[in-house]
Amino acid sequence: VVAGAFRFTPLGIILHGSRSGLAGNSTAAEYAGTARYAVNEPGGLGWHCTIGDDRIAVHMSYTAWGWHARGCSSLYLGVEFAQPVEAAAISDGQVRAFCWFFQQAQKQWPTLPMNFPTHAELDGSAAYGVYDGKTDTFSRGSSRTTDLRQRIMATLG
Ligand SMILES: [Zn+2]
User: What is the DSSP code (8-state) at residue 58?
Assistant: First the structure.
């Protein structure tokens, strides 16, 4: 669901995890379910794409924004990694697909910074507005967040 148009270059891309809570879900099943859910999301939420293994489902243009991180929503692009539960890893194929999305977004926003905060990291910040207790893509302070960003940076070169 589109909420508006960016008024300036986004500050980066917020990393989410889709978190159906279905621990047995494969990445492919979680990807399909999340992408389907994005269409006419009942709560009015919106994000730019859902990310599976070497594939993305694009939900809105790079110039539009949707509600995915409260007050930060109009400041950043937002993506949902198919990730049923926090314990689920983000695969190399998902990292490659994310990097492809970033490169596509750069065509629209040439100065788009390589700034990739997680939902958990922005939760509770002044721009965000309140504290929701989010743990996606990984709980705040987790070394898995550092690892994920390092893999992204390595892929982007
Ligand atoms: Zn999130």
Answer: E
Q: What is the pTM of this model?
A: 0.97
Centre of ligand 1 from the C-alpha of residue 75, in Å: 15
Distance 156 CA to ligand 1 centre (A): 23
Query: What is the whole-number distance in angstroms between the Cα of residue 8 and the centre of ligand 1?
Result: 22
> Do 127 and 72 meet the contact criterion of CB atoms below 8 Å apart?
yes
pLDDT-based confidence at residue 42 (cuts at 50, 70, 90): confident
What tokens appear for 104 in the block? Answer: 């596509």
Distance 154 CA to ligand 1 centre (A): 24
Task: Give yes or no for a contact between 12 and 72, defined as CB atoms under 8 angstroms apart.
Answer: no
Compute the distance from residue 151 Cα to the ligand 1 centre, in Å.
Answer: 20
CA pair distance 84, 32, nearest whole angstrom = 12
Q: Distance of CA 81 to CAs 5, 7, 47, 155, Å?
A: 23, 26, 11, 17
Per-residue model confidence (pLDDT) at position 78? 98
CA of 56 to the centre of ligand 1 (A): 17
Give the C-alpha separation, 68 to 152, whole Å: 21
